[in-house]
Design brief:
By secondary structure, the chain is of the alpha/beta class. It has eight helices and nine strands.
Length: 231
């Protein structure tokens, strides 16, 4: 069973949880699916990796040297990666798989397998639908169903194509100084999500935030599950 590999990594940034799980990245060809603004791509390039970040919302960049590695960002969807077969050592979905439309999840995971070399690995980090952050978010952006769809797709379309699925868990620490801080960050993320400014600023959201803020002393930690698929 996959859970035999389960371990708790504690409080970690996405980058540090990734590095603790996969080890050194220097010299690796890495694909970051759903790369957003490319922060992780740049961080991994600084450590010596060659990283291509794909995101349907991003403008493309040329290859850029960064640290001892390089990176580029490409506008593309997860189910149609414009790259050759067997050309990557590692494919990443970090908080991005559940954003893939349900009808395209299997195709996206098939693309990940296609671009990986026979020795390639797949790393998927997904927020677990529990905890204080989830308690507030569910009022205006409940992702429980899409996160379940992503988990089901992993079991159906990723796990059978790898020898092992090493499951771990970490905590994505989230701190807010107050409701205005929380609302500002949520509004900044609207283009990647399906909610509105008015929904974030609704009185019910503010009331629940204030209740939760008091109960947890401003800590809104998000549990994260990692599935690390290896050949």
């Amino acid at each position: 069973m996959a859970e035999a590999f389960a371990r708790d990594l504690g409080a970690k940034s996405h980058r540090d949880a990734l590095l603790e799980t996969i080890g050194p990245v220097s010299g690796l060809d890495i694909v970051d699916v759903g790369c957003g603004e490319g922060d992780l791509a740049r961080a991994l390039a600084a450590l010596g990796a060659r990283v291509i970040g794909y995101d349907p919302f991003m403008s493309e960049t040329a290859w850029t040297a960064h640290g001892s590695g390089s990176y580029r960002l490409v506008k593309a969807s997860a189910d149609a990666l414009p790259m050759p077969n067997a050309s990557a050592d590692l494919v990443l979905f970090i908080f991005s798989l559940h954003h893939v439309p349900a009808a395209k999840l299997d195709a996206a995971l098939a693309e990940a397998r296609r671009v990986l070399r026979p020795s390639g690995r797949l790393y998927v980090a997904e927020p677990v639908p529990e905890g204080p952050h989830q308690f507030i978010m569910e009022l205006f952006h409940d992702e429980t169903s899409v996160r379940k769809a992503a988990a089901d797709a992993l079991a159906r379309s990723a796990k059978p194509n790898f020898a092992t699925d090493r499951v771990s868990r970490y905590i994505d620490e989230r701190r807010f100084t107050g409701f205005d801080d929380f609302a500002g960050r949520m509004i900044a993320n609207m283009r990647f999500n399906g909610y509105t400014k008015d929904a974030v600023l609704a009185p019910a959201v503010r009331a629940r935030f204030e209740q939760t803020f008091a109960a947890h002393a401003g800590k809104f930690d998000q549990p994260v599950r990692v599935d690390f698929f290896c050949p």
